[in-house]
Design goal:
With 130 residues, this protein is mostly helical. 66% of the residues lie in helices and 0% in strands. It has helices spanning 14-37, 44-73, 92-123.
Length: 130
């Protein structure tokens, strides 16, 4: 259903944004595992540790930024496909808030997985495929 200003209704609830971010995070975990196989054996644990730290840091920063943007929008949260309906200087925040929260939840799912893979690879015996 579209309103007179071409915004798709209903507007995004935070629950849907978080669930989609978690789904994206779960899809990113196997990609991280496959990507780590292409890293040299001696640097694989370092790679997984750095990815885990970057994911943890970005999750914290983006959660605070996303929730702040969500709060400043006052309930007028728009989907990315509604970006053409944005007017004014503060309008892009209505599109950025769900994107930031979705990426933050993705990182929240990814960082424990990266640390788990890090400890798994670090504990593997020398010469194993891990």
């Amino acid at each position: 259903m579209r309103t007179e200003d071409a915004i798709i209704r209903p507007l995004l609830p935070i629950r849907d944004v978080a669930s989609r971010g978690a789904l994206y995070g779960l899809a990113a975990v196997p990609l991280l595992g496959v990507a780590s196989l292409f890293v040299d054996d001696h640097h694989r644990t370092t790679f997984l540790g750095v990815v885990g730290l970057l994911a943890a840091f970005s999750a914290v920063v983006e959660i605070f930024l996303g929730l702040f943007c969500w709060w400043t929008c006052g309930g007028d949260i728009r989907r990315s496909r509604d970006c053409h309906t944005v007017t004014g200087q503060a309008g892009p925040i209505t599109v950025a808030a769900p994107v930031l929260l979705r990426v933050a939840v993705l990182a929240l799912v990814l960082f424990p997985s990266a640390f788990g893979l890090h400890h798994l690879v670090d504990g593997a015996e020398y010469g194993s495929w891990l």
